């Protein structure tokens, strides 16, 4: 908490905040071709933060052409890895130097508590940029084990122009998960941030230019997904597209690829992450803390939020009251107060959607244990109480569909085998938590779980060196780690005949 300044500091800084609002194309800020704008509204109080350029297909085309020119004729892909490294490290330093403005913008734009913007979102973004900068001059191409009459090199080459469409729940950090490896690999790109939270992406582009990223290499085009996002997905001169967001929209990008140039598409989509508590789990207080944090952190607006508590019936009666007690700590407060653990949901439409699931769960037979209502309605913001639904069955919609809010569904099971069946019983496979004191059982169960990440005796653990991604309709392809480069490079074989 010592690193998070006071509420008065943030309120004072808010008065002078003047975020960039135009598209960033070919190294400069420009209006949308149509001149249209949309309101960027803060979920804290319903007030307009700024009016942002609403870009369309013409602007996407301008940005793609700038990126193509930068890739085909500019210096970026022709720089040595150590030269790109220096620029990315400079960008990481500029993010750190702009931490207050970025953190405040993030909180105002999407409702994240300021403590999480300061302690998680901004520093992890800088770390990501620096990590990939450091990685690129330590990666090697390959030489195939052919006979003595040939030398066969297998080179990793950049794909060209990459489109990236990012979500609103971690606008800066997930943008950096895309930008860092795309640029480190020598590509040029067009970034379309979510229309609900475009402001830190525009600031990132400004800082990248200041760091020395050449014109046209990083373009940021704000706009509606149904217009700008679709245009990027359908563009014939985009070589690959990476998307993080809902499964519904992910399917659309697959269809856009087939309807255009068969561009490579990688997806990180929805999740319905289980926290599985077996009968031999130790320290139920620690488990309760992790379960509550796993679903209520960032208002439950986390791809791998632990939205299902799958608990052995032998320990459920002991665990559930502890979870409810922990939930009380996540009652939403003023997001600009560093003491607040929970802020506002991204907008009123999403808050209404989340609340509809609370009603659906009770209609289907679930018991409302705590929460279940809007909070601080007098502020004009989008706040929801931490909510726990008990007596949920695996077939209920609240157990099957991604709610993406502070709503926990509690499902009782009789054995580890049943827990695995229930955990795997959705279309998703992003993450899973598992609590047990038996290390043999832990690994046997983890092996059976269909999830891209399994945490044993923890939840949402990891760092930039470990990959994130899922199975099933959670998508494919991995963010973070060296494996992220696989999405933005291809292999070129160069066979030299020596016979």
List the helices and strands and how they pair.
Elements: H1 7-15, E1 23-25, E2 28-30, E3 37-41, E4 48-53, H2 57-73, H3 81-97, H4 99-110, H5 114-135, E5 142-143, E6 150-158, E7 161-165, H6 171-184, E8 188-192, H7 199-211, E9 218-220, H8 225-234, E10 240-244, H9 247-259, E11 264-268, E12 274-277, H10 284-296, E13 308-312, H11 313-327, H12 348-363, E14 367-370, E15 374-375, E16 383-384, E17 387-390, H13 397-400, E18 407-413, H14 416-423, E19 428-429, E20 431-435, H15 439-448, E21 453-456, E22 471-472, E23 475-476, E24 489-497
Helix pairs in contact: 2-8, 3-5, 3-7, 4-5, 5-6, 10-11
Short description:
With 499 residues, the protein is an alpha/beta fold. Helices cover 39% and strands 21% of the residues.
Could you explain how this protein is built, in words?
- The chain is an alpha/beta fold and 499 residues long.
- The chain folds into 2 domains: 7-269 and 475-493, Aldehyde Dehydrogenase, Chain A, domain 1, CATH 3.40.605; 274-463, Aldehyde Dehydrogenase, Chain A, domain 2.
- The protein is built from 15 helices and 24 strands.
- It has helices at residues 7-15, 57-73, 81-97, 99-110, 114-135, 171-184, 199-211, 225-234, 247-259, 284-296, 313-327, 348-363, 397-400, 416-423, 439-448; strands at 23-25, 28-30, 37-41, 48-53, 142-143, 150-158, 161-165, 188-192, 218-220, 240-244, 264-268, 274-277, 308-312, 367-370, 374-375, 383-384, 387-390, 407-413, 428-429, 431-435, 453-456, 471-472, 475-476, 489-497.
- The strands form 7 sheets. A 7-stranded mixed beta sheet has the order 14-17-18-13-12-20-21, with helices on both faces. The protein has a 6-stranded mixed beta sheet with strand order 9-8-7-10-11-23, with helices on both faces.
- Helix 6 links the parallel strand 7 and strand 8.
- Helix 5 packs parallel to helix 6.
- The longest helix has 22 residues, at 114-135.
- The relative contact order is 0.13.
- The mean pLDDT is 97.
